[in-house]
Amino acid sequence: MEPVLSALKYFFYRLLTLAITLVGLVTLIFILIRSIPGDPARVLAGMMASEEDVNLIREQLGLNQPIYIQYFIYLKNLFTFNLGVSFRTDSPVINEIMARLPNTLLLAVTSTCLAVILGVPLGVIAASRKGGKLDLLLSTFSIAGISLPIYWLGLILILIFSVEFRLLPAGGSGTPLHLILPTVTIALYLMAFIVKITKASVIDSMEKNYVITAKSKGLSERTILYRHVLKNALIPVVTIVGLQFGALLGGAVITETIFAWPGLGRLIVDSINSRDYPMVQGSIFIFALLYALVNLATDILYTLIDPRVRLK
Amino acid sequence: MSEQYVRLIKSKRVQICLFIILSFIFMALFADLISPYDPLETDLSKSCKPPSIEHLLGTDELGRDILSRIIYGSRLTLTISFLATALGAVTGIFFGVVSGYFGGAVDTIIQRITEILLALPGFLLAIMFVAIMGSSLWTVIISVSISIIPSFIRMVRGLTLQVRELEYVLAAKQLGVNNVKIMFKHIIPNVSPTIIAQITLNLGTSILFASGLGFLGIGVPPPAPEWGTMLGTGRAYIFYAPHLIISPGLSIFLLVLSFNIIGDRLGEIIASK
């Protein structure tokens, strides 16, 4: 009963700090968004609109209210997931986000899976051939992958597979074929990262006492690696994959723009360009919420895999 | 400490990377002398011409010489990279060491703010700030530097906690050396190799962020020859003038790769000590 209780306590503690951080972030966003130069009412009304029209729109959007009232309304609404109405399309922000969110998540999941499936074994191979030619090759690949600008990688992939060989669509969505290029673009970066972390972690574990004991018992390196080391070495990898989810979301903004993928990332860029405050606020809020929840889930998963981790 | 840097310089890979970085710095410094054309001069009759003897890297959609734009672009990229990293690192180191050294309420406040900034992935944070301040060279520099501040605060705070209780720091305290002097004369120099490795890696990251903003059309605005902005505009011509996107992307990649390899190697040397 005791460990379950402390796990629950930890869980609620984390939820509470998460809530505080999120309130801080949305406050920051609120202040920042309000300081964006440009009047959304005027943008919406268009160049030719009269002063009365602009005022009317300002009233409809609640922009004529004092700023602190706007803030409290905004906070109250966030807690009820009422993210307001888009300035641009007049439909509820939450609906637009929910329509786009599955696309972003789909891309995140496919690319993470691809990166893990390829990256973990390659990292283990690099570690087991430490200092060898294969290790050098994989390390070079890994650091090159991290240094590649994903916006360039995406364009090069389009150039090869869509322009040159005409095998895959250059953009859009709808069929599994559309998924391939954006998935590979994101996965390559993530995979490079996973190879590096897995290698470091496996090498680190190979120097632990229990490995030395196993070696002195006469077990072969291979047996030790697959029977004993891997299980321990993969724990930090789980954390890193979880933490990299943030980079994935940041990368989504670019990848979705390159491949005209109808996700949340592109929605943010489009909304910023058209000064659609509620949409920007809403999508960044959802992004941060997702990011925080994934980090929390990573933490919990981490404690489940590794019984040595103490909760506080 | 200097022995670590000697080991760093001896590595062949590091030498190649240093050569690449110095070449770009050379290009940036002497752009006026070595650039074959004016990077902003348009000539629509020569738009989107593939590489030739006259124009080694071809011309862009407005007939501007791409090689000249790459050369002048290195100025922008290196300026952004060095300034944003310097600004972010100095701010981050300051708050990190203060947070770790004093602890208590100061620490709690700084840490809560750091957490708020970390609640968004770095690149999104940069996008948000550029959106607010409008795009210009300076807003890009400031946005990128803000996005790297939290990781510096975290790291330096952790390092400070490790050395705070060491004898020489305690001794200095006993002797009545003032706190500011202890932080900046005794703690920071002691942890500087780790900080320098992090700074080197961030030189690369800030290039990726700044050019990423340019690619999305919210970075250094055209007609400035910023490499990311060049990629963003070149993208529209990918079907019939692919050379528009090759050289800017390759330049970004080479420079970032060089910074990353050096930072990585330095990290390894510090860890193996």
Concise description?
Helices cover 78% and strands 0% of the residues of chain A.
What does this structure look like?
The complex is a heterodimer of chains A (312) and B (273). Chain A has 312 residues and is mostly helical. Chain A contains twelve helices and no strands. The two termini of chain A are 16 Å apart. The mean pLDDT of chain A is 81. Chain B has 273 residues and is mainly alpha-helical. Chain B has a single domain (74-272), classed as MetI-like fold (Orthogonal Bundle). Chain B is elongated, with a radius of gyration of 22 Å. The mean pLDDT of chain B is 88. The chains are: A mainly alpha (312), B mainly alpha (273). The A-B interface holds A 17, 20-22, 24-25, 28-29, 32-33, 35-37, 143-144, 146-149, 151-152, 155-156, 158-159, 163, 170, 246-247, 249-251, 253-254, 257-258, 268-269, 272-273, 280, 284, 287-288, 291-292 and B 112-113, 115-116, 119-124, 127-129, 131-132, 134, 204, 208, 211-212, 215-218, 228, 231-232, 235, 238-239, 242, 245, 248-250, 252-253, 256-257, 260-261, 264.
